[in-house]
Specification:
By secondary structure, this protein is an alpha/beta fold. The chain has a single domain (15-176), classed as Nucleotidyltransferase, domain 5 (2-Layer Sandwich), CATH 3.30.420. The protein is 49% helix and 20% strand. It is built from seven helices and five strands; from the N terminus they run αβββαβαβαααα. The chain has helices at 2-13, 57-75, 91-109, 120-128, 135-146, 155-169, 178-187; strands at 16-23, 28-37, 40-50, 79-83, 115-118. The protein has a five-stranded mixed β-sheet. The chain is globular. The N and C termini lie far apart (60 Å).
Length: 194
């Protein structure tokens, strides 16, 4: 009986999981899909959704929904992780970014895919060990972790991969709630104005 339990536990620990990482944006939205077995990563796909060519914000949101839906249908991820938007000086930009994130989330929610949100510093900390790492440092670490020969040309794509890797390292334990925003604000006082 103990051997059977041990075998079941080992099999459960080695279960494959596909994670979709999203770096929300209204001009360029990055995405990255990784398959994880234990602590082994397999890069499935990464890229960006170019949105500058669409004239209105509504068209951009429609395109985000269509592309994220297409990615979900192609890869059937078990979980989605998003980078939380940070509060900048321009409130209108923040609102637009929040809408873009919400549209991506709604595509996953329609398929009952669990969603987790991570603060940018948490993503950098999880991938590089330094919450203040540059985008280039994050990209270089991802090349090592995922055995990528050439760094992604668009850093939005590598940011999205970093969100997916962060999610795995965090075991999906972060929570999307006002509490996570509170911790984000306390970790990023230099970026938030009262």
């Amino acid at each position: 009986m103990a051997i059977l339990y041990l075998a079941f536990t080992m099999k459960k620990a080695q279960r494959e999981k596909i994670i979709l990482g999203i770096d929300p944006g209204t001009s360029v939205m990055g995405y990255g899909i990784v398959k994880v077995t234990g602590n082994q990563f397999i890069l499935l796909q990464y890229g960006v959704i170019h949105l500058k060519k669409y004239a209105t914000h509504e068209l951009k949101l429609k395109k985000i929904f269509e592309r994220v839906t297409s990615i979900l249908e192609d890869f059937h991820p078990d979980e989605m992780a998003l980078e939380a938007p940070f509060y900048g000086k321009n409130v209108q930009s923040m609102l637009k970014l929040g809408r873009a994130q919400g549209v991506a989330m709604s595509a996953a929610l329609a398929r009952e895919i669990p969603i987790t949100e991570y603060a940018p510093k948490k993503v950098k900390q999880s991938v590089t060990g330094n919450g203040n790492a540059s985008k280039e440092q994050v990209s270089a670490m991802l090349q090592k972790l995922l055995n990528i020969k050439e760094a992604p040309k668009m850093l939005d794509a590598s940011d999205a991969l970093a969100v997916a890797i962060c999610h795995h390292f965090q075991n999906g334990n972060a929570q999307v709630s006002a509490k996570s925003w509170k911790s984000f604000v306390s970790e990023n006082k230099d970026r938030v104005k009262s």
